[in-house]
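step=encode ok
step=design start
structure_in=
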């Protein structure tokens, strides 16, 4: 029997490239939650956004036009809590471990930012090493095909946006960060096929990301630009 839940009116304030926004979108889609999304330009934040967001960061979730939630992890937990089903493991220890690996994923996003912000080749190569090591740390953690086995979990929602960077970056990086990591590779493939993860960005995401990276004018930008010229 079709049963319609009564959800609050939800608006996610978003940015097209933000991986933290994508986490929230994936949970919204996984749980079929009706919502609106409003995209802003982070280079020219609107006044209404600055008034609402305590940190000046996306995502924020507007609830019934009166409450504001910020921090993607908190938004994901809230969306999970107000809907039937649970994207978390029920065992408290497993759930706690997953939350820790979600936080590890936030660190990975910082390392990716470090990679595309590196001014010179030697800093860039150091960041590559950090990333390689973190993927190696993840390898024995992955049950496969998803992080915790067959079922898509909150930790998967956090990692799908991380893998997405490499769908664009792989072609330009000096080494394959996923070589010899069969578990992580299988996980990456599973997440790339997940409908919620696929729909969490617009179809022009790869072009937007490439343009963003070129505009940074850092070491990685030169690798991308060289490739464009070679075409
Ligand atoms: N810890 C925050 C991080 C969010 C975040 O860093 N958002 C970035 C975009 S991906 C942002 O809004 N940056 C704008 C700024 O810092 O001015 C979360 O999980 O929501």
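sequence_out=
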């Amino acid at each position: 029997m079709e049963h319609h839940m009564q959800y609050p009116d939800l608006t996610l304030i978003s940015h097209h490239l933000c991986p933290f926004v994508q986490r929230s979108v994936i949970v919204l889609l996984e749980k079929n939650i009706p919502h609106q999304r409003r995209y802003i330009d982070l280079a020219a934040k609107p006044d209404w956004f600055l008034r609402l967001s305590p940190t000046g960061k996306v995502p924020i979730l507007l609830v019934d036009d009166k409450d504001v939630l910020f921090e993607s992890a908190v938004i994901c937990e809230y969306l999970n809590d107000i809907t039937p089903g649970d994207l978390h493991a029920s065992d408290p220890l497993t759930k706690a471990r997953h939350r820790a690996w979600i936080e590890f994923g936030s660190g990975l996003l910082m390392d990716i930012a470090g990679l595309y912000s590196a001014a010179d080749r030697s800093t860039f190569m150091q960041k590559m090493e950090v990333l390689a090591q973190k993927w190696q740390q993840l390898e024995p953690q992955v049950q496969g095909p998803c992080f915790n086995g067959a079922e898509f979990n909150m930790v998967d929602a956090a990692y799908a946006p991380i893998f997405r960077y490499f769908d664009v970056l792989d072609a330009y990086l000096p080494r394959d960060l996923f070589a010899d990591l069969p578990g992580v590779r299988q996980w990456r493939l599973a997440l790339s096929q997940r409908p919620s993860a696929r729909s969490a960005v617009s179809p022009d995401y790869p072009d937007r990301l490439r343009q963003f990276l070129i505009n940074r004018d850092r070491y990685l930008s030169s690798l991308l630009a060289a490739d464009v010229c070679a075409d």
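step=design ok
step=annotate ok -> DSSP finds ten helices and four strands in the chain.
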